[in-house]
Each structure stands twice: as C-alpha cells, then as structure tokens.
Amino acid sequence: MAAEIIYGKELAQSLRDQMKDEVSKLRDQGIVPGLTVILIGDDPASKSYVAGKQKASAYVGVDADLIELPESTTEAELLTKIDELNQTNQVHGILVQLPLPEHIDEQKVIEAISPEKDVDGFHPINIGRMMTGKDTFYPCTPYGIITMLKSKDISIEGKHAVIIGRSNIVGKPVGQLLLNENATVTYCHSRTANMEQYIAEADIVIVAVGKADFINGDHIKEGAIVIDVGVNRTEEGTLTGDVDFDSAKEKASYITPVPKGVGPMTITMLLHNTIKSAKRFHHVPLDD
C-alpha cells in the first residue's frame, strides 16, 4: 500500500488562514505584528525566498519591511542596523537572510539579534531554551516538520527517529525537538559508518543533506515515516528532494513530497514566531 502524502502546502495554507484571523483580532487591539528582513547583495535564491516571506506576511496581515543592502555592506554597518531594529518597538521579528557575504561573520550577526526578536530561532539563548524544553522561538523548518507530523496524529513518543544531516538550521534542532517529544534520536552524517543499517531500523527518517535521491525505498523499512527536507534542482530544471520519492512511497506509511512538502511550512512557522513575539511584547496571552 502506497504511503499517505503529507502536503505541507495544504497545511501551511490552513495555518495561514488561522493566523490571518488572529492578526485581524490583534490589529483591532492596535497591535500590528512587525517583521523586518535584511537582505544583503543580489543572490537570486535569497531574493526569491524573501519575496515568498513578504507575500505570506501580507496575506496574514504581518507588516513586513525589507531592508536591502549592497554586497559591500560591512559587518559593523550590519550590526549597527540590527541594534537599531532591536530597539524599535514596532519590530517584533528580525531576520537576516542567509547566506551572508564572506566578509561578514554569520554567527556574530545571529548573536546580535535580540533573543526576543529572533524569529528564526537561531540565537544561542533560544537554542539553549529549546534544548532544555523551555518555551521559545523554535527554528522554523524543524518546527514545521514537527507540526506536519502532529497534523496527521502521528505519535512521536517511543519512535526511533534517524536524522540524516547535522546542520544547525535543520538537522540538530529537529533532532532536539523530536527528543523533546520523547522520540529516540540517532544522528547520521558524512562520517557515519554503516548508515544504511541505521536508516533500515528507523521509524521516522528525516533527510536533510542536499543530495538528490540520497536514499530510496530499498533503504527504509516497511511503514517508515519519511520527511524529505532536501531541495535540489535537476539538469532539466525541476525540483527534487533528497529521497527518491517514487520508490520510497511504496514502502513508507507517510512521506513528504518536494516541492509542496516541508518548504511552505518554514515560512509559515516564521509568521507564527513573529505573531508570538508581538503577543509577548504586548502581554497578550499565548495559545501555545
């Protein structure tokens, strides 16, 4: 029996509709959630991501301000701009679009953003709060993955989750969020010996390595849940994930497609975090 497909695009739309109602009520109270995105340089992929964030923000009613800076912007100039935004009450979320030019220290920039406005969930204080099971802003893609699993009433507790990839943006935090939900978590990466053995034992497989068709149906066990975070462009120009979808869907119980899978959830959770930040600032009770 083929897997049930978890369409992140559909779930994201449903959540954004709920957020639209929520923001409308906040605006009635004079509270306007504000997100500022800083984009440095002319990277086409980054521009595309930012455009998607602006469009989604407009849909739910979040005020999204874009600050575009030239590639030549110095680290000091960027840190000054972030400091200004940290002190601007109308700004509830600050996002610096990555990657940054080589002359700017990415970690220094992440740490310069106030933890109260770090809607990407990358600040060490927010990562530490996540590690210790405290309420915080969770990194958007991992948070989106957990939300997708819960949307299908998939029980995470007691499951063996194997994470392929250990980036600070996806791999490490999604493992921690699964651990917080009482899963047993194994991380695999480029130095892992016998990776196939771990994948074959996994109840939940999350693949985030950036290599097209890195795993296929032969690698996974019958009934596994497969979450594909990869986005790769083929020679023909189409998008494909890290999982060979056609073969994996014949063995998995649930699987996410690429596109229309995890991607739309990332921006949705960014909006969630921005609204949450605005509510915190204005002492509005939080739902979650």
UniProtKB/TrEMBL annotation:
Q: Give binding positions for NADP(+).
A: 165-167, 231
Q: What family is this protein classified in?
A: Belongs to the tetrahydrofolate dehydrogenase/cyclohydrolase family.
**Known pathway:** One-carbon metabolism; tetrahydrofolate interconversion
Q: What does the subunit section of this Swiss-Prot or TrEMBL entry state?
A: Homodimer.
What EC numbers are recorded for this enzyme?
A: 1.5.1.5, 3.5.4.9
Q: Does the keyword Ligase apply?
A: no
> Which protein, by its recorded name, is this?
Bifunctional protein FolD
Query: GO terms for CC?
Result: cytosol
